[in-house]
C-alpha cells in the first residue's frame, strides 16, 4: 500500500504515527485562535476568513462559527485556491485546482485572515499573497494555522497558531479533518 500524503486519509501499516492533536485538542486550538482574532481585530467588523484549499477551508468555517457564537453575527468566509500561483508547478504539474470563492463584499479594505492547516516552508502562503494581490486590496492580511512545524524557507510567520510542533525535515505532519477525511486528528510520522 502506498504511503499517504497530507491529502490521503487512513493509517498505513508500515509506518508509526503519533497523534499530537485529537478532536478535542483541535477544537480548543480553534477556539483560542478565534478569540485571538477577535481581540486583535477588536471584534469581527470587516473580518474575512479565507481558507486555503484543501483543509484550510473547513478550518476557516469552524473558526467563523466560533467567532459568530461569541459575536452573535456571521463572519465572512471564502475559499482561496493558490494552485496556479505556486512556484513548484513545473516539478509537480498534476495538482488539482479548486475554485476561489470570495464572500459577498469581497476583500477590499477588509482584514483578511488566511487560514491553513500546516505552516511549513512558507511557499503556500507566498502563493496565497500573490493570489490576494490579483483579487483585491485588503487593509491587512494575517495568517492563522492549526500547526506550525517550522523549517521556513521564506520570511513568513503565522499570527495565530493552534500548536507549534517542532519536527525533523524527514517527518510528515498529517492533518485529518472530519469534513475531508472522516476524522479529526493531527499526527506526525
TrEMBL record:
* Listed EC numbers: 2.4.2.9
- The UniProt record lists the keyword Protein biosynthesis: no
Where do we find the motif PRPP-binding here? 112-124
GO MF: uracil phosphoribosyltransferase activity
The protein's UniProt keywords, in alphabetical order, are: Glycosyltransferase, Transcription, Transcription regulation, Transferase
Q: Give, as one word, the top-level EC class.
A: transferase
Q: Name one Pfam family in it.
A: Pribosyltran
As given in the record, the signal peptide range reads none
Name a single GO biological process. Answer: regulation of DNA-templated transcription
Q: Which domain of life is it from?
A: Bacteria
Question: What InterPro entries does this protein's entry cite?
Answer: PRTase-like, PRTase_dom, PyrR, PyrR_bifunctional
Which reaction(s) does the protein catalyse, per the Swiss-Prot or TrEMBL entry? UMP + diphosphate = 5-phospho-alpha-D-ribose 1-diphosphate + uracil
* Span of domain Phosphoribosyltransferase: 20-160
Q: Does the keyword Transcription regulation apply?
A: yes
Family membership noted in the UniProt record: Belongs to the purine/pyrimidine phosphoribosyltransferase family. PyrR subfamily.
Record function comment: Regulates the transcription of the pyrimidine nucleotide (pyr) operon in response to exogenous pyrimidines.
Q: What is this protein called?
A: Bifunctional protein PyrR
Amino acid at each position: 500500500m502506498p504511503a499517504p500524503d497530507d491529502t490521503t486519509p487512513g493509517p498505513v501499516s508500515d509506518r508509526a504515527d503519533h497523534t499530537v492533536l485529537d478532536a478535542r485538542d483541535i477544537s480548543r486550538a480553534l477556539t483560542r485562535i478565534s478569540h485571538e482574532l477577535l481581540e486583535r481585530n477588536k471584534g469581527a467588523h470587516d473580518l474575512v476568513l479565507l481558507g486555503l484549499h484543501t483543509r484550510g477551508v473547513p478550518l476557516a468555517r469552524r473558526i467563523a462559527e466560533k467567532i459568530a457564537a461569541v459575536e452573535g453575527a456571521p463572519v465572512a468566509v471564502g475559499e482561496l485556491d493558490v494552485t496556479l500561483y505556486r512556484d513548484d508547478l513545473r516539478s509537480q504539474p498534476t495538482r488539482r485546482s479548486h475554485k476561489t470563492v470570495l464572500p459577498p463584499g469581497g476583500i477590499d479594505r477588509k482584514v483578511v485572515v488566511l487560514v491553513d492547516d500546516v505552516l511549513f516552508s512558507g511557499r503556500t502562503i507566498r502563493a496565497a499573497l500573490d493570489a490576494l494581490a490579483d483579487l483585491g486590496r485588503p487593509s491587512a492580511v494575517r495568517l492563522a494555522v492549526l500547526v506550525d512545524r517550522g523549517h521556513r524557507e521564506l520570511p513568513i510567520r503565522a499570527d495565530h497558531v493552534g500548536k507549534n510542533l517542532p519536527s525533523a525535515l524527514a517527518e510528515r505532519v498529517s492533518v485529518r479533518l472530519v469534513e475531508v477525511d472522516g476524522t479529526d486528528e493531527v499526527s506526525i510520522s
